[in-house]
Specification:
The protein is mainly α and about 325 residues long. It is built from 12 helices and 2 strands, in the order αααααααααααββα. The protein has one domain. Strand 1 and strand 2 form a beta hairpin. Helix 1 crosses helix 4, helix 4 crosses helix 7 and helix 9 runs parallel beside helix 11.
């Protein structure tokens, strides 16, 4: 039952307090360590464009991911193991605080609603300035509908990356599993991109794709069910998700984004990359609210699934 109480307390911490201060936030420290290790990556020499240079980048990038996972997940495992031997309460509190740092639903919701408010006031400049908190694309030239699309896409994709996936690995591997997932996801966000250091981040990107394979599809299904429960277009959510999930470069992002696009009957589009859904409804700031409501219901459904699985595990273990 300890893990059940850890999960409940972590969810309460996110709901009531949100993110811990940046100075002590584990994800911030993950980013600092990844940035530090990246400084020593091969790539500045001419040989980086050769097969040998690419291999060195690939090997070093793999080491960065594995070392960072060990730096964060291993201490969590041993500290919680030690706590479990002398204090039930300390284990629950410590485990909940660490687990909370591995997911961020309240902060995601707050940022998306903040951008919605800016768009409703036609404050495009401030909306563009806030968008990097959600997406990595260039936002300076985006208009109102494109900004609204990016916000809806982000809330759909991040219900998987920032909530469903961390709790999925918590169910499988406990708190260290959730932390390890967050490390890999952070590595992918920081170094898993094309360009000069593409091979440096290739291991992180592929591992992140593998880890998100199941959670992304769970997230899409949750959004379809949420669409039915919220009286949105559940049937269209299912159709678009199944038919168009493969349009995104990521093998996973298209599942929740496709479900969201179908449920709201909008076209979610990233210029030069993908277009999901149809344009039955215009992308307005009010539709961002509808997207947030869908993710609220999907998140609640996932919490119920997690709680049921923990209770079932406890019941069968007895």
């Amino acid at each position: 039952m300890r893990l059940l109480f850890v999960l409940l307390l972590a969810l309460m911490l996110d709901l009531l307090l949100g993110e811990p201060p940046r100075a002590i936030h584990p994800v911030v420290w993950m980013g600092k360590i990844i940035s530090f290790l990246k400084k020593f990556a091969p790539g500045s020499s001419k040989s980086s464009s050769t097969g040998e240079g690419r291999m060195r980048q690939l090997i070093y990038g793999s080491v960065v991911v594995l070392v960072t996972v060990c730096i964060f997940a291993a201490p969590v495992y041993f500290i919680l193991l030690y706590m479990s031997q002398f204090s039930y309460i300390a284990y629950i509190i410590g485990g909940a605080m660490v687990l909370k740092s591995a997911f961020a639903f309240r902060q995601l919701r707050h940022t998306v609603l903040e951008i919605k408010g800016l768009l409703a006031k036609d404050n495009l400049k401030d909306a563009r300035d806030r968008m990097p908190a959600l997406v990595s694309r260039e936002t300076r030239g985006l208009g109102k509908s494109a900004l609204a699309s990016a916000a809806v896409e982000s809330v759909a994709e991040n219900i998987s990356d920032s909530f469903v996936a961390p709790l999925f690995y918590f169910l499988l591997l406990g708190v260290p599993g959730a932390v390890a997932y967050r490390v890999v996801n952070t590595c992918d966000a920081m170094i898993g991109y094309h360009g000069k250091y593409e091979y440096l981040g290739k291991f992180a990107a592929k591992l992140d794709d593998a880890l998100n394979f199941i959670p992304a599809r769970i997230s899409g299904l949750l959004l379809v069910i949420a669409a039915y429960l919220s009286k949105e277009n559940g049937r269209n959510a299912w159709r678009v998700m199944l038919l168009e999930h493969g349009k995104t470069e990521s093998p996973n992002a298209g599942w929740p984004m496709g479900a969201m696009a179908g449920a709201l009957r909008v076209r979610l589009r990233k210029a030069g990359s993908y277009s999901l859904g149809d344009a039955s409804n215009p992308l307005t700031p009010s539709l961002i609210i509808s997207g947030v409501k869908l993710t609220d219901v999907a998140a609640l459904l996932w919490v119920l699934v997690c709680l049921i699985m923990e209770v079932a595990y406890f019941a069968f273990a007895i």
